[in-house]
Specification:
The structure is a homotetramer. By secondary structure, chain A is an alpha/beta fold. The first copy, chain A, has a single domain, classed as TIM Barrel, CATH 3.20.20.370. Helices cover about 40% and strands about 20% of the residues of chain A. In chain A, the strands form three sheets. Chain A has a seven-stranded parallel beta barrel. Chain A has helices at about 25, 45-55, 85-105, 115-125, 125-140, 150-160, 190-205, 230-245; strands at about 5-10, 35, 60-65, 110, 145, 160-170, 170-175, 180, 205, 215, 220, 245-250. The interface between B and C is medium-sized, with 12 and 12 residues.
Chain lengths: ~260, ~260, ~260, ~260
């Protein structure tokens, strides 16, 4: 019987200029896929270069994490952009990151939309379609990572993309499988998070906020970098996965 | 005996958002290589997408025209950046443009530094080296276009880059082969410009401001988009080249 | 019997860096109030300094025209900002422009929200309230200029602001008094525009798109700078106002 | 005999959007003058509003800390701008901050140039003159704060500005009275810093790097916010000043 595999992902490279954000050096030791900001909502060329090198050093696969052109709002404010704008913002950002990835002899693995761009694409089909077509144009084998149950997820599948489902073990989920979003991330019990992660990996199930079990067939587990004890949670998941014989591997080895 | 060939180039895609700059639609009909702005000193993802499509439609080869991150100063103000910053600004901008070029089924042909970044690289060896290494990392066959006689030109050759020399027929040159830069471009007599262009193509010579003839072995002739009668000059050069049996061809067919 | 007075206004100072927009030099000769961009959606410190000097030279009163922090979208894309963000964006932009106005020995006359910020404030009461409170905090006598019939207009009046109504003679109005917005401004017949302007000034009425007459008590008449023949329209209005003995005067002499 | 007075100042409000920088809440308790970033090299309208309120709550006088339009480089990279650009960048930034200060019922106290703009003005007379004239235009009583011995300092005095000298007790000074600048601030012994501060306050002297005593008649003592133990140093200075009967007071009560 084959060994269970699971990817662990986190947003990385969100610093900008003299502004530091997140504990990338530490977190990169525990994850297998990094979602790297591309200079619109966060990140800059120096940060991108550094983050990609850090990923390489830790054997972590790199994906793009493009967002709205709104550094001031960290890409978390909805902007009413046209589908063509969405398409070209994706091409620009993912293209820029790809240059940093390829000069390290690596291949870009995935794309995950950031913040409000993700929320808009989840509901607006024209935006979702433009975004996904842009990703396909960059490379048809790129993996589109998404939370489950959204329009952009369905469109990506319909357009023949490789789609991966990500579940946050520092989030709670309603009975419809939708995450209950928090404005500010809270401390999460590492043991509980690790238990959730194991159950997702082994059974494809989680317990919803209502107490009932729901199906959650995820390819990757997300720990948010701004969850105060993110490093601790990741370390615990790693240890418990080891005991349970679950292999941590990047998305491209799982899909 | 083989037919003479010459490339004609111009800066393109310098509009931004609702701001229009230059007469790209018209100029693109006469040139063979376009230097496309990459969103730092000018251009944006929408403009880049449009400009690359326009180049394709007109059979024009596309190069990147990266600059300082200074839209407010149009990349014409020197900034004291570190070599590592220069390197990563190049990777970012050229990488972004490459995505737009490749999705059209084209290949990026060349890189030409814009404005003050070009001036800084021309004198600062560490910056020049970082920039040229970055270009090589993106693709070793990319052509580095430059004015003659500068440090960055010598370094590019020493590092084994394909280097092309560009001469502006709407500029004047001193006896040392250095252009006499003008803050504001003036009307240039199209007939004179065409004569200059033909002499460069056939003899590899120009007349310096002092009246003496100097050697000027150029691969490409530049007409500045902000020279008021740029279109007229380009049309005249095209017509005269036709009569003289000089073929207009993109750089990659000349080097 | 007192002579009729009417203000003529136009958006000014929308250039940015090397990008030119609008024909400010010409238009400034015909208007009495200028709505000056403040560096967020358009304009920059050099442009603001120049525009305010130009207004002074032409005896034109200056108002602020603040917008969303979205130069790329020219402030025409809705952004989901919080009321506190709206408040502080107004304070910042209007405060900045005020410095340029006061060093010329002038006083800031009015504030008119630009583009999508105006649209958002027109419907979102919390944003409207924050914006209007910010304007009052800068100076309680500042005039708030607005199209008729909107939430922000009502709130401004409720908060005791001086409110002026602006009507565009290059726009059409529905029977509810709401403008029929056009994405791209069209040529407007100068004679028709002047007739409209005179009727607004003398009778406070316009003919709606349905053919019926509606009340339109305006304090100022707007000609959009991007209407192709804006200068011609303004010149015609000036000439016809002269014949009809209608005095062109800035808002502060009208309210 | 009158009691000795000394101002304590620190750069404040350097956060941007979701990016936090510095420990403003803590430091504001110990200083008497705050140099508040104005949105070009750091700070944004939300941060400015918050920082000014925090200053008011702590009875701290507010000054403007304008810089180059280079958020990416935190205003620490020299840019080759024209004097007119410098003048208008000052008007814009100081004008914007003034709006936040005045709505709190406070008056702007001083202006201190940030980073590379300060370095450029220190050597380039035309820039220095433009900057100082701009400050005077905003308000002739504004205090221009500067390190000693620089061109901009002399020009400010020649133009009749109120000029205050600031000395950093977490820096070392050469025998010419010029600070030995460090790229990265180091831990500074609080007791040593307090001793230095007392000697400056009482004797107007410091010991230079060469061991000799030099004159240093300062009006304000700077502790850099990025010195790792800035809060501890400020607390120690406060305690020692108390013992020595030196009153901490804002610049406007000292000059």
């Amino acid at each position: 019987m084959s060994r269970k595999k699971m990817d662990l992902n986190c947003d990385m490279g969100e610093s900008f200029g003299n502004y530091k954000m997140g504990n990338d050096e530490e977190i990169m030791r525990y994850i297998s896929s990094a979602n790297v900001a591309c200079g619109f909502h966060a990140g800059d060329p120096m940060v991108m270069a550094h983050t990609v090198k850090l990923a390489k050093k830790n054997g972590v696969a790199v994906g793009a994490h493009p967002g709205f052109p709104d550094l001031l709002g960290f890409g978390r404010r909805k902007m009413e952009i046209a589908p063509e704008e969405a398409r070209n913002y994706i091409l620009y950002q993912v293209g820029a990151l790809k240059a940093f990835v390829e000069r390290e002899g690596m291949e870009l693995q995935h794309v995950w939309l950031h913040g409000a761009l993700s929320s808009v694409a989840a509901k607006n089909e024209a935006i979702a379609r433009a975004v996904i077509e842009a990703i396909k144009e960059i490379h048809p084998e790129l993996i589109f990572v998404h939370r489950p149950g959204l329009a952009s997820y369905e469109i990506a599948k319909a357009l023949g993309m490789n789609v991966a489902v990500s579940v946050g073990v520092d989030l709670e989920y309603g009975p419809d499988g939708m995450a209950v979003l928090q404005r500010k991330k809270r401390y999460t019990d590492p043991k509980e998070a690790a238990k959730k992660a194991i159950r997702i990996a082994k059974e494809g199930k989680i317990t919803a906020t209502t107490g009932e079990d729901i199906e959650m067939r995820a390819h990757t587990i997300l720990v948010h970098g701004d969850t105060p004890n993110a490093v601790e949670i990741l370390r615990e998941i790693r240890e418990e996965f080891e005991k349970e014989n679950i292999l941590v591997a990047p998305l491209r080895e799982i899909l």
